[in-house]
Write a structure and sequence with these properties.
With 203 residues, this protein is an alpha/beta fold. The protein contains 5 helices and 12 strands. The protein has helices at 3-11, 19-27, 40-49, 66-76, 89-92; strands at 55-60, 82-84, 100-102, 111-115, 118-120, 125-130, 144-150, 154-155, 170-174, 179-183, 186-189, 196-202. Strand 2, helix 5 (89-92) and strand 3 form a beta-alpha-beta unit.
Length: 203
Amino acid sequence: MSARDTILGRLRRPVPADLERQAAALVAGNERPPEPAGTLVERFATRLALPSVAATLDRVATLAEVPGAVARYLASQGAAAALYLPPDPALTALDWTGFALTDRAVPDQVAALAMAKAGVAESGSLVFETGPAAPMLPNFLTLHHVVVLAADRLVDRLEDIPADLAGSRAHYWVTGVSGTTDIEGQYVRGAHGPRFLHVVLVG
């Protein structure tokens, strides 16, 4: 008997009488591995710290403290206080004294700031929407991507992403820094975008 005959023979077999029971058993219970213990913030922080995401996290109580958090981060990286600032009213209203700000990502721009629409504890992902106040391109051009995320926009799982994202022109997801092993089999960070990702969690 050929392999073709064997395959066709199996396809012609009668459907098992307990097929419905077998199907129910496949979807019984939780289809995903259990989430580790901890709050949303703790789980999100754990995901960010994984080598596959390779991001850092800082926490502040209010939006007014964001410039100080950004200054601390850039100083810790030995980088100048130079920053692309998107035209988001919530960010431009802050006190950026001491920073060299630009309204476009110029060549060799060190850092870009962005406001995330949501964060996902399950994966450590950040969700962004695009629009006049939130250009997308600068977030992929600089060495350091600094992201502001409100703690009340942190959700448990991917399915919990806010429904109002559907009303935006477009949105995109970032999970950690970009990397590749295409270059002589060596892992290279920042191959397709920023090399460093830093999240400032507000609240």
